[in-house]
Design a protein that fits this description.
homodimer, mainly alpha, 314 residues, globular, 2 strands, Farnesyl Diphosphate Synthase
Amino acid sequence: MSLLKRAELALSTHFEQAAGSGAPPRLVAAMRHAVFSGGARIRPQLCMAVATACGDDVPELTNAAAVALELMHCASLVHDDMPAFDNADTRRGLPTVHKAFSEPLALLAGDGLIVMAYKVLLQAGAHRPERLIALMDNLSTGVGLPHGIVAGQAWECETSADLGEYQRAKTGALFVSATCAGALSCGQEPAPWAPLGAYLGEAYQVADDIRDVIADAASLGKPVGQDVLHARPSSAQALGLDGAIAHFDHLIEQAASSIPACSSRDMLRHLVQLESERLVPKALCEGYFKSHPHSPTRPNTPVALATDRSSTPH
Amino acid sequence: MSLLKRAELALSTHFEQAAGSGAPPRLVAAMRHAVFSGGARIRPQLCMAVATACGDDVPELTNAAAVALELMHCASLVHDDMPAFDNADTRRGLPTVHKAFSEPLALLAGDGLIVMAYKVLLQAGAHRPERLIALMDNLSTGVGLPHGIVAGQAWECETSADLGEYQRAKTGALFVSATCAGALSCGQEPAPWAPLGAYLGEAYQVADDIRDVIADAASLGKPVGQDVLHARPSSAQALGLDGAIAHFDHLIEQAASSIPACSSRDMLRHLVQLESERLVPKALCEGYFKSHPHSPTRPNTPVALATDRSSTPH
């Protein structure tokens, strides 16, 4: 079974088990819409791949850890898409949760998914208390204060923010949680796996910035040009487009090199390369430069990495 | 030390410890505003009171459990106050979080508080893994699907909802978690303490409905008349005002009677009585009936317990 299939199967099983019966049907439908709308499942796959490298001796715990990461990711997307933030109408080519269900339900769906992430771990890990506690701690680090994805998103509301700190928290933190969770599910030290998550997470954020400039909305499945629109810190703004692409390539190299010596190293490097091409397709870059021969690839004026969105209406 | 003082001290200590250092300052300030704006701290006090009755042999775990409950409660208030729900400008006489900080920060503050609740437990309970896991499970039950406070709030978005089910989930669930957490912190069976939480929680919701009718905004510290405004299920609407007050009194009696035989039974009964008077002050009721001699105390027309807020703009 491919990692993607394993992730999808685990998500379906754990979602239904954790939702239980008797919950408000529209809330459950909103949460289902948030989770089952065609995500790439990269975080759970990453967790499962590292677990495979570490022996994967309790696969049901690995599955739960992988699911918990994806539920947290989906929760953050639901809230990020809301009018208070990106005000996005579409995600992965479908209506966002608040568009399909309502703002109140989007708000509650995000909250419900955060709690569900912990519940999934609790339901699977009670017989492995030490690993369970380590996994919950690792998950909280990736999401909460001071450096998790919630904090990362909140840097957009400060009057000044460091681009690296912002990107590490907004995207990198949950990638680090993902690789570490793979090791922790097997009762192993997570530290050797943290750099893989960190480099890959930073690469994802840079890729997101690049695609926000060069992709069209149809292929991206969500609105483009959001970083400029919301005056958000962006690598493409800070480094210029070709600088951002070079930075992305370097991060992918670093991610691949960071993989510890193990029997699954080749498989993991292959996964990193596949993701790299999926994230920033060479053809897309070439097509963009061909159709925008005079586009500035370096910023002409110094670009502020800082922004204060909190004072602007959304 | 009074339970209230113990709760406040534990909140301050655990909040700072869990926030760590280096988080976005405005996010931390928004979360602090949400937590330290003069709440009654009834859930943590209830947890601590039950723990006292159960021996309170690991007080630092009791404190963490109490804090986690209050953080979840505060998270739900922050999100409930937002424009997508109540659109409330004030809470406890102060600006709500989205008014004082911004909608994006209110959204993130709520998310951050949910994760912080788990983190507080994890930081305090690692050396008591069994109790810790039971406490986390109990907390998730009180907040998540299918019957926790997130589900309770979501019943407002359904086209039909049972008033009892709605109230049990919206308010009762976290009260049940609170009394059960007191027992679980001491490694004891939570079941005997669940009815106290359930009756008290229902009484709180009924009291909220009553005060929404008879109080003025100044004494309540938040807008009144919200149930009618938002067409929300309400005991005062369903039973009439005197019916709701009688129901409240009955619930308080049941709460007091449910307290298991223990050396702290008198202390707990006293706490319940004090809360009863604080919630629905006799003087307030008498004052209202004096100034509204012709107010309908029974509904004149059948009252729909169901509502669909999801289709109305907020």
